[in-house]
Amino acid sequence: MSEGVPARDDVCPIMRIGDTLLVALQGELDDATVVRIEDRLTKEVARTHATGTLIDVSGLSVVDSFIARVIARVVGMVRLLGSEAVVVGIQPAIAITLVELGVPMGHLDTALDAEQGMALLRRLRVDGNRAR
Amino acid sequence: MATELVEPTEVVVPIDSEADLIQVRRVLRTEAVRAGLSLVDQTKLVTAGSELARNILIYAGDAGGELRVEQVRSGDRQGVRATFSDNGPGIEDVEAALTDGFSTNGSLGLGLPGSRRLVDDLSIRSAKGAGTTVVIVKWRR
Ligand SMILES: Nc1ncnc2c1ncn2[C@@H]1O[C@H](COP(=O)(O)OP(=O)(O)O)[C@@H](O)[C@H]1O
Ligand SMILES: [Mg+2]
User: Fold this and answer.
1) Hey, CA dihedral for A109, A66, B21, B51, is it positive or negative?
2) Does residue A44 fall inside a structural domain?
3) For a substitution probing ligand 1, which of B59, B83, B119, B132 has the most ligand atoms within 8 Å of its CB?
4) CATH number assigned to the domain comprising residue A68
5) Closest C-alpha to ligand 1, atom 18
6) C-beta pairs of B45-48 under 8 Å, 24+ apart in sequence
7) How many domains does chain A have?
8) Using the beta-carbon criterion (under 8 Å), do A101 and B22 form an inter-chain contact?
9) Is B20:B67 a contact under the CB 8 Å cutoff?
């Protein structure tokens, strides 16, 4: 797989680094935009056969139950396609808020930042078909 | 202690379309900062507001609704009060609607109970056919 930028969009471009896709969710996202990013990312994983996907949410200042559910759903779809997915950069204030809101995010693989996310992806790829 | 307005001005945001959700979050963030809320408390207030505004979009539909935001004070506490009102179908069983996982929409059912956990006070005035008003308050710690 070659390096490059396979897909772009005015909001939240999807980058490709080797066999990993990286998407950064940022700014004020309305529901339709979140769903559109989910759709693009899923198609991009299928098209590129990326073995790992990093979803960087450090640029989000709010994650409500709808956005959280879409993030969890996209992780599920990426995994179904045979790729690993890691959510990176959840801001502490958002993590605290999501726990109190009661949105279940504990089953997701998460990392502090993109670098640790890449390391986690490498371990997950080695682990392969571990039970979830 | 009685809760009183800090200033007579209030901010009003119509809630008629998805784009209004972003404005709701913006206004709540601005007012939370003005009241001196911590980053975590700002985030909790904005998130609760996002849930309540989305409920208006989903359940009140074309009837529409609005958000009113005020700076309030009680004794030496300062905070933000946000009132979400709509002319939709109303909530038949408010107690049930405040229960984790209760949804007539097949969604998570966390909006109302979760919002209640995120703020200092949440009250609902609603009746079948009479619209819904949800008032939340978040105080500076
Ligand atoms: N503004 C509203 N008007 C009418 N019904 C509402 C309103 N807000 C909430 N409800 C009712 O309360 C239920 C619970 O709401 P909520 O806790 O936000 O969960 P969810 O939106 O996932 O169903 C909804 O399914 C709906 O039946
Ligand atoms: Mg809801």
Assistant:
1) negative
2) yes
3) B59
4) 3.30.750.24
5) B111
6) B45/B80, B45/B82, B45/B118, B45/B119, B45/B136, B45/B138, B46/A61, B46/A62, B47/A62, B47/A63, B47/A64, B47/A97, B47/A101, B47/B115, B47/B118, B48/B114, B48/B115, B48/B118, B48/B119, B48/B122, B48/B136, B48/B138
7) 1
8) no
9) no
Residue showing tokens 């959700």: B21
* CATH number for the domain formed by residue range(s) B4-139: 3.30.565.10
Whether A2 is in a domain gets the answer no
The verdict on the CB of residue B97 being under 6 Å from ligand 1 is yes
Intervals of chain B under pLDDT 70: none
- B3 half-sphere exposure, CB direction, 13 A CA radius: 13
- What CA–CA distance (Å, rounded) separates A77 from B3? 48
| Separation between Cα atoms, residue B28 and residue B81, nearest integer Å | 10
A132 domain-assigned: no
Q: What is the model's pTM?
A: 0.92
The residue ranges of every structural domain in chain B are 4-139
- What pLDDT digit, counting tens, does each position of A5-60 carry? 443 356 788 999 999 999 999 988 888 888 898 999 999 999 999 999 999 999 99
Domain that holds residue A23: 14-127
C-alpha to C-alpha distance for A37 and B111, rounded to whole angstroms: 23
Tokens for A47?
Answer: 């098209």
Is B25 in a helix, a strand, or coil? Answer: helix
Note whether residue A94 is domain-resident.
yes
Give the DSSP letter of residue B59: I
Cα–ligand 1 centroid distance for B96 (angstroms): 10
Write the residue with the smallest CA distance to atom 12 of ligand 1: B97
Nearest-neighbour CA in chain A from B22: distance (Å) = 7
A20 token code pair: 């990993």
* pLDDT tops 70 at residue A3: no
The three-class DSSP label of residue B81 is strand
